[in-house]
Amino acid sequence: MLMDSPARIRTRPGALMWWLYSVAALIVLMVAVGGITRLTESGLSITEWKPVTGTLPPLTEQAWATEFAKYQRIPQFRAHNADMTLAGFKTIYFWEYVHRLLGRVIGMAFALPLLWFALRRQIPAGYGWRLVALLALGGLQGVFGWLMVRSGLSARTEVAPLWLATHLLTALFTLGGIIWTALDLRALKRTPFARPARLTLLGAGALVLLGVQLFYGALMAGLRAGHAAADWPLMNGRFFPSEVLGTKPLAALLVDDPFLVHFIHRWWAWVAVAGLILLARGARRAGSRAASVAVHSAFGVQILLGIATVMTGVSLWLAALHQLVGALLVVMTVWAAHVHGIRTRAS
Questions:
Q1: H or E element: which one contains 314?
Q2: What letter does residue 203 receive in the DSSP assignment?
Q3: What are 238's strand-pairing partners?
Q4: What is the per-residue burial (b if ≥16 Cβ within 10 Å, else e) of 285-301?
Q5: Angle 316-346/161-190 helices, nearest 10 degrees?
């Protein structure tokens, strides 16, 4: 009977794989909660960043009154919520609190098991640096989240759209990295000498096209650009909002004009879909029909949700589902790119 080497016995790629899948699921949930937080305009309800002491919500009426008084001092309250009651404040505080609490839970769910696996020398060779990098990305995500909130506490009545886009894209990039690493570990679990997949040109191209679409989706949320038109495929009865041209430099219009951002988001989607179809076909040729079906299903549902969100005047739950499926689309695209990378390396 063949015996595994001591190093092989110590490493546990299967356990690490399931741990990373669990963290990824929490990030998908956080993206959904973050979408609700933005849609309910709850993101500025907590005006301070206290990573440790902020874990607990206000527990007395006096504490609630203190938090409400802090919110009343920022421009958003004075401009949009001057008639808000303490009960209304508690509602928006809830979503921002849950969003931040999930961030803390994800940090602990990543850092503590990582330390455990490291101390027991159960991390396969070559994966330690990658896991530490993913942990650092998670920490950076928290910093970006606070910078996003801070951007809306003084001169603005909402968070800066570009900070919101940075916050969301960092979360999705981290999610993609976690899924890719989990899939590498899955291959290592099946074959002890499996090498990590490489990102092919097809996979990278599809991910870049999707990344542009996600960037404009974040700008849509930050600018409330979903309200710019409630019809489809036309926008307010026209194909292109030409009246915005010339009002600002083109570079500025591309990131801060709600009509142009909305136009780009709804039509760049089809460019991204073309790239995703090519990637899905590549994954199928590589032997994974499941990855191909998953990508097609995810972008199909995402398009339908996007159209429905626009035509319902940005229904809260449809918009939240749209953001949730966007995160799932990232997962499916990374899966397909990974499949294609394995096949290419094997050949």
A1: none
A2: H
A3: 235
A4: ebebeebbebbbebbee
A5: 40
pTM of the model: 0.93
Residue 49: Cβ within 10 Å count = 14
User: What's the CA gap between 182 and 113, in Å, rounded?
Assistant: 14
What count of other Cβ atoms lies within 10 Å of the Cβ of residue 62?
A: 8
Separation of first and last alpha carbons in the chain: 32
Q: Rounded to whole angstroms, how far apart are CA atoms 278 and 208?
A: 13
| Cβ-contact 114, 12 below 8 angstroms | no
Render 228-297 in DSSP notation, one character per residue.
G--SSSSBTTBSS-GGGTTSS-HHHHHHH-HHHHHHHHHHHHHHHHHHHHHHHHHHHHTT-HHHHHHHHH
Q: Give the C-alpha separation, 137 to 145, whole Å.
A: 12
| pLDDT category of residue 335 using cuts at 50, 70 and 90 | very high
Which tens digit of pLDDT belongs to each residue from 190-239?
988 889 999 999 999 999 999 999 999 999 999 999 999 999 999 999 99
Angle at 40 (CA atoms; ends 39, 42), nearest 5 degrees? 115
pLDDT at 245: 87
